[in-house]
Structures are given as structure tokens and as C-alpha cells.
Amino acid sequence: MKLLILSDSHGEQRYMEEAVYREMPDHIVHLGDVMRDAQALHDCFPAIPMTSMPGNRDFNTVDPPVIVTVFGGVKFLLTHGHTLGVKFSALKLLLAAQEAGVRAALFGHTHQAVNFEQQGVLLMNPGAAGGFQPSYGVIEIENGEISSRIERF
Fold first, then answer.
1. What is the chain's percent helix, strand, coil content, to nearest 5?
2. Distances (CA, A) of 32 to 10, 61, 73, 124, 153
């Protein structure tokens, strides 16, 4: 299973569409800022399932700020990250991930792409799909094993 991980699109659609064409994912994850961008992307690619969540710029939403879900048999925590203070430290995110018993925690908010493992948990921020140096993340899951990478435009 191939996941395309996007965040912080801030009204910019073209890089997200290009990432879909480049990667041809099985599922798209949009980690917030801005949810209407995620909906517009899903409208362009309705056959690809999408999971999206609110960011700090997504007002008047009832969607939860943290989702725990399973992709390809692997448990993930998804969040924009603003409610876990990721601009200051990954500690709250890591603790939430450990408490939820996930293998990977995906977040946005900082606009800084990171992809590393800490205490047995993969932490990935795909960077900003609508930023100055746009980027996205890719996670591939095969037989319960995860491989991950960051790509730039």
C-alpha cells in the first residue's frame, strides 16, 4: 500500500495534484491547513480514498484534531500537530503515539519536512505542500513493514 502524505497546502492545489500524478498512491492523507484544499484534491481524484483532518487554520470544523487509524495493517496516529505543540517539541506527539500504540505518527504545522524514527515510532512531517519549498511524504507498507521518504518539487 502506498500513502501520499500532504499538509499545509494553504490554498495551493497544483503541487498536490502533481504529487498524485507522480506517486499514484492507494490512499491520500491530508494533515490540515486547509481542509477545503483536501476536498478539492479529492474531487480531482475521487477514486483514491482520502483521510483529512483540520489544522489551526481550519475554523468551524467538528472533525477531531487527532485520528488513530490503520493503513495496510499498520496503526497510525494522524494530526496537524498544533494541539500537541509540535512547533516546540515532538515530545507530546511521541507520547501520544506511544499511548495509542501506533507504529507511525504523521503531523504537519511546522512546514518543516522530517522523517525519522524515535523510540520505535516513525515521525513524519511532509512539510508544506503550499509553501516556499513545497514537499510531500510517501509511505509504503508491505507485509507490515514501513518505508518512508520525503520528496520535493
1. 20, 35, 45
2. 9, 11, 24, 14, 20
| Domain that includes residue 67, residue range | 2-152
Residue 118's CATH number:
3.60.21.10
- Containing 20, the helix (H) or strand (E) segment is helix 14-23
- The number of domains in the chain is 1
**pTM given for the model:** 0.97
What are the tens digits of pLDDT across the range 9-59? 999 999 999 999 999 999 999 999 999 999 999 999 999 999 999 999 888
- Residue with grid cell 474531487, as numbered in its chain: 43
Instruction: Detail the DSSP E strand segments found in 2-100.
Output: 2-6, 27-30, 50-52, 66-71, 74-79
